[in-house]
Amino acid sequence: MNARTLLAVDPTLADFGKDPIWISIIKAVVIFIVLMLGVLFGVWFERKLISRMQNRYGPNRAGKFGLLQSVADGIKMGLKEDLMPRTVDKVIYFIAPVVLAVPAFLAFSVIPMGPMVSMFGVKTPLQLTDLPVAVLLVLAMASISVYGIVLAGWGSRSPYSMLGGLRASAQVVSYEIAMGLSFVGVFLFAGTLSTSEIVNAQASGGVFRPFGLAIPMPSWYMILLIPSFLIYIITMLGETNRVPFDLPEGEGELVGGFQTEYSNSLKFAVIMLAEYVNVFVVSAVSITLFMGGWRAPWPISIWDGANAGWWPLLWFFIKMVLVFSFFVWCRASLPRVRYDQLMALGWKILIPINLAWILLVATVRALQLPNVDRSIVLILAAIVLLACLGIWWRFDSVLQKRKETKAELVEAEFERLDAEPSAGGFPVPPLDLPHYHGVERKEVPSGTN
């Protein structure tokens, strides 16, 4: 099977919307079941992997290798008495877990998991649906999910839950901007916002020809756009409230965060389900946009049939397991950051770096366009870059002057306190008295312990 034959089975936007309704229902039900089972497996896998990293066994009693432990926990939470505090807003308190879970399932509907296949005699793509702006749909669903966290904190009528909800809203606003900017480079190179088309764009890297030179480009955007990929890796941890960015659930200062007033019952199980499904969604988005989607990695891709039929489902599943293992590794290895560090990372580091990287990527793409005066493009890019450097230098100089002024004030205050010990507001006894409070001062001979 040659490359042209393989391209013939790659789904495009024109292939969607033609499935019979029963095929779409089967796809939706299968996705729902797989995600539900994935949550059960994910909880067990996370507990097992963390336990191995911490030199212990983890779940090993319920079922073979403890595989039934997650099932037992789910049954327990489903059958446990549902306690509801008196002061909660009952409507908001009830719908908040639903608002958390439903958008997470909807976001997975635009994730491509394979090429065109034959399903019960019908030629259909291994994807529920696709849109010209499918990536924006994922971002919109992620934005709606945070409403569930905010409503859970608000409806609980608890100060700690309220703080957790407010933290989540500020955190998502900060990191969703950086996440959206990390996608811009992918859009510029793929030329589309459709998830299936982005996967197709990573089939071959192409050739970059600046000033008559022929430079081969990698096919996966995680290599070609590595700054965008690294920034997205950080933002997906913040978007899903996972360690080290789990500030909305900080047990040390919030007693559990926005879910403090939810008893360990079915509502808590739905919140936990939504968290894991969101992790699966951001993992699938990273695979789709940066890791070639369902396409086989090298050297498996050398085999002609690797990207045809049902085999791509296996490659997609392996990539999902690897990305999810990265989440678990971060949880087991990194401590929780302070909230000011979290916000400073998002606004002062990730967003400026993203903007500078987008400028560079846009310049490269402009140089690839035919009949474009490259000198004008380079001059404009240089002007914008110099302007950015000037703004950065100006703000950095102002910040440095503020730090120096603050240091001088602090040093002057210390000097004043040293010269006048009682100036700090605390009474200090004279240090030359022979005794204090009836206790005589005695000289201790040298060499005595």
Automatic annotation (TrEMBL):
UniProt keyword annotations, A-Z: Cell membrane, Membrane, NAD, Quinone, Translocase, Transmembrane, Transmembrane helix, Ubiquinone
Reaction it catalyzes: a quinone + NADH + 5 H(+)(in) = a quinol + NAD(+) + 4 H(+)(out)
Enzyme class: translocase
Main location: membrane
Enzyme Commission numbers on file: 7.1.1.-
Function: NDH-1 shuttles electrons from NADH, via FMN and iron-sulfur (Fe-S) centers, to quinones in the respiratory chain. The immediate electron acceptor for the enzyme in this species is believed to be ubiquinone. Couples the redox reaction to proton translocation (for every two electrons transferred, four hydrogen ions are translocated across the cytoplasmic membrane), and thus conserves the redox energy in a proton gradient. This subunit may bind ubiquinone.
Protein name (database record): NADH-quinone oxidoreductase subunit H
Organism annotation: Streptosporangium subroseum
Gene this chain is encoded by: nuoH
